[in-house]
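Review this fold:
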Amino acid sequence: MARRSYDQYCGLAHALDVVGERWTLLLVRELMSGPKRYSDLEAALGGIGTSLLANRIKQLQADGVVGRRLLDPPVNAVAYELTTAGRELGRAVVPLALWGARHFLTEEQAAQEEFRAEWALVFFADSLEPAALRGLAVDYDFHIADSIARMHIADGRAEIISGTNESAPDAVLRSDAVTVGAIVGGRLTVLDAVAQGRIGLEGDPGALETLLTLLQTQIESLVGQGDTP
C-alpha cells in the first residue's frame, strides 16, 4: 500500500511523511540505545503486531532512517540500527519526549501504563555532550520501578544497556516512574528528589557525585529549553 503524503513543500510535512505513522517514533526510540533484533523490537513494542512492525521497519529502511547488519559472534543474528539520519532523528525526538512529559504525564498513568528505565535514559544519554563525558569510564545501574538499565560511559559517549549485567556497577540509582516523570517534566529537581528520599543512591562516592552532576546539569539544561519564550 502506498504511503500517504501531505504533498506540501515543507520540512515538517516531509518529516511527518516519514515518522507520522503510529509506532514509528517508538521504533526509533528503541533503536536509540543500539542495534536490536526483530524479536527484541517485537517484545519491546507490545501490541504492534508482527506484520505492522515489519512494514514500519521496511519503510524506515527505504527512507534511509534504519539499516540492518549482522551482530558480532557468537550471536550471528540480523539486527536493525539507526543510520546517520536516524541518529539525527533520535536527537530531534528528545525535545518532543520532554514536551510530552511536561504536559501529559500524570501520576495516575504511572500505575496503569508500562514503563522501562531504558526509555528515559536513552533521551538523557543522547543529549549528553562528549565534553561532559571526557575522561570518564564508569557504569551506572538504574533501578526504576520494576525495570533495570545500565548507562555505560566510556570514550566520550554514554551507552544504554537494557536489563541486568554480569559485571558490578560503580553506582546504583533507585527510584520510581512517577519521580522520573516529575523530573523530566520539570516539576522536580534531581537534588530535591534525593533530599526527599524519592531517589536512593548506592556505590562509590566519587561515581555518585559525578552522576548527580551529570543528571542535574543536563536535565536542567533540557527542561529549561521548554521555558524559553
Q: What stands out?
A: The chain has two domains: 11-82, 98-225. The mean pLDDT is 93.
